[in-house]
């Protein structure tokens, strides 16, 4: 079973990097995607992969387990290599992450957006009181919003593998430590913060008397 989880994580991460970084490369080379388009691609591809392989591997896409770290970095390298084979990627069309301002500014941004992402993931994917069917949408929209806010400043990594793969393939290591340290600190703090508010006397599903938000909405419409 664990082998299937690792394979699912490799496939999921590969397509997240291929689509997300691919949109960056296409926009820089052809100028046809636009920045809002890049934000949408990142949000949608994460959402799609959460729904596709989340039930197999948990769709972490954010290294927390040693084998997942290896799987995700490998997938990121493979996806980055694929993009370099498909496009004439130069220094100007680099699809990795580089800090635009100071390293401190970039680090703080990465901590904050990684905090938010982990906080949302903890709420919608690890708490049995949450509406599980909406987890992919919530996570994808969080990615989209984070890229909108932090993308122009840091590239909005939120995941060391997202930055490590392109850096290795393109041999561009400027500020790479930011995209390793920032997401790790942010995800730890985000998970800890959610755990502080996780416990209540009654679960949401008991309060709403429904095990599924989507099913309850369907019944309401039917009436």
Automatic annotation (TrEMBL):
<keyword id="KW-0472">Membrane</keyword>
<dbReference type="InterPro" id="IPR034294">
    <property type="entry name" value="Aquaporin_transptr"/>
</dbReference>
<feature type="transmembrane region" description="Helical">
    <location>
        <begin position="33"/>
        <end position="53"/>
    </location>
</feature>
<keyword id="KW-1133">Transmembrane helix</keyword>
<feature type="transmembrane region" description="Helical">
    <location>
        <begin position="107"/>
        <end position="125"/>
    </location>
</feature>
<keyword id="KW-0813">Transport</keyword>
<dbReference type="Pfam" id="PF00230">
    <property type="entry name" value="MIP"/>
</dbReference>
<dbReference type="InterPro" id="IPR023271">
    <property type="entry name" value="Aquaporin-like"/>
</dbReference>
<keyword id="KW-0812">Transmembrane</keyword>
<protein>
    <submittedName>
        <fullName>Major intrinsic protein</fullName>
    </submittedName>
</protein>
<dbReference type="GO" id="GO:0016020">
    <property type="term" value="C:membrane"/>
</dbReference>
<feature type="transmembrane region" description="Helical">
    <location>
        <begin position="176"/>
        <end position="197"/>
    </location>
</feature>
<feature type="transmembrane region" description="Helical">
    <location>
        <begin position="7"/>
        <end position="27"/>
    </location>
</feature>
<dbReference type="InterPro" id="IPR000425">
    <property type="entry name" value="MIP"/>
</dbReference>
<feature type="transmembrane region" description="Helical">
    <location>
        <begin position="65"/>
        <end position="87"/>
    </location>
</feature>
<comment type="similarity">
    <text>Belongs to the MIP/aquaporin (TC 1.A.8) family.</text>
</comment>
<dbReference type="GO" id="GO:0015267">
    <property type="term" value="F:channel activity"/>
</dbReference>
<feature type="transmembrane region" description="Helical">
    <location>
        <begin position="137"/>
        <end position="156"/>
    </location>
</feature>
